[in-house]
Amino acid sequence: MSIKIGMPKFPIVSAPIKLAMLGMTEGNGHPYSWSIILNGRYDAVALAQCPYPAIRDYISKQPSHTLGIAGAEVTHVWTDDPADAELVAKVAKIDTIVSNATDVIGNVDAVLVATDKGEEHVERCRPFVEAGIPIFVDKPLCNTRRDLAIFSDWVNAGHPLISSSAMRFAKEFAPYHQATHELGKLEYVNFTMAKSWETYGIHSLEAVYPIVGPGFISVQNTGHVERNILHLSHRDNIDINLVNIYNLAGGAGMMTLAGTHGGVQLRMADSFYAFKAQLTSFVDYLRLGTPPVPWEETRELMQLVIAGIESREQGGKTIYLKDLE
Question: What is the pLDDT of residue 7?
């Protein structure tokens, strides 16, 4: 039997809500940016040492009054490399650095698992699930059937746990969320993204999902590890092409929506807005207890991630979501 130590009441009514920022993987600087966005402060000298130029750029351009999410604060930080935690703490002015991730149990109200390796997330989350602490998990939540089954069991048992991509919250795409009537019947969607399908495929999926809604039928990935080319079919007879090419930085976040009467091309440009809206949705979840994304949607999105991997590994075989149930 798991012993729940310092388990907070949920929803959380205390203010400020104390958060722990946990973990850092290569190429992912979310502990820096997320901590700044939540805390509403940063040390400019320390920020100049942050190894992520994009974060330095968009954070430094923000008016100070746009930083901070009322009623929540990152009070503890742990990273896989202790040196990273020291710099994150200096940058976002975080009071406490812990030696082990589990040291935050009993001292915070919720945790953010700020790593993007889905294959690690079950074990990174397990101690906090067992302690009854609410968790936000960076995208993707997972990338195997086994891990999705574990997360499903945890959520169905009532554990407060959510995961999302910032693309869902991009202001450039929001006007078309379940609202493409001006285009006639939506027939075709295309989305391009950089990096790997395993880590950034969820960005592609979660940009498109709120527009077309649930009801995906199948996935076919005819690409390879560094050039993932996917065709997805949807119950509303929409054809969707998602392209994740590792070095496609110039095309990241570009979307085409085409219908029987019109079409539009969009591109995400304001990362700060999307990240702040995403983090605000987590803080609201902690306060209100209502998840910003229903678990059924998160589960279907993870099935799509998994199907994309399995199709590629099986030489472009079409994978039907009904077979992943």
Answer: 61
Predicted pLDDT of residue 4: 53
Beta strand pairing call for 135-137 and 72-78: unpaired
9 vs 269 pLDDT, higher one = 269
Q: At 219, is the pLDDT very low, low, confident or very high (cuts 50, 70, 90)? A: very high
Our CA angle for 63, 46, 278, nearest 5°, is 50
Distance from the first to the final alpha carbon of the chain: 29
Sequence-separated (6 or more) residues with CB below 8 Å from residue 127: 101, 102, 105
Nearest to 230 by CA among 298, 319, 139: 319
Looking at the predicted structure, is the pLDDT value of residue 311 above 90?
Answer: yes
Residue 159, sorted as left (phi over 0), alpha (psi -120 to 50) or beta, turns out to be: beta
**For the chain, what is the largest distance between any 2 Cα atoms, rounded to a whole number of angstroms?**
59
Q: How far apart are CA 298 and CA 310, in angstroms?
A: 18
SS3 state of residue 180: coil
What's the rounded Cα separation, in Å, for the pair 181 and 178?
A: 9
Which positions ≥6 away from 87 have C-beta within 8 Å?
A: 32, 46, 49, 50
pLDDT class for 1, splitting at 50, 70, 90?
A: very low
Residue 90 corresponds to which tokens in the numbers above?
């200096």
Q: What percent of the chain has pLDDT over 70?
A: 98
pTM: 0.95
Tell me the mean pLDDT in the region 103-132: 97
Q: Which has the closest alpha carbon to 218: 305, 301, 318? A: 318
Q: Which residues pair with 219 in a beta bridge?
A: 232, 319
Amino acid found at 13: V
| Distance of alpha carbon 104 from alpha carbon 30, whole angstroms | 19
Closest by CA position to 118, among listed 224, 240, 17, 205: 205
Q: What is the mean pLDDT of residues 2-24?
A: 81
Structure tokens at 277: 């809206």
Question: What does the CA dihedral 86, 90, 95, 98 come to, rounded to 10 degrees?
Answer: -10
Tokens representing 63 are: 């008016």
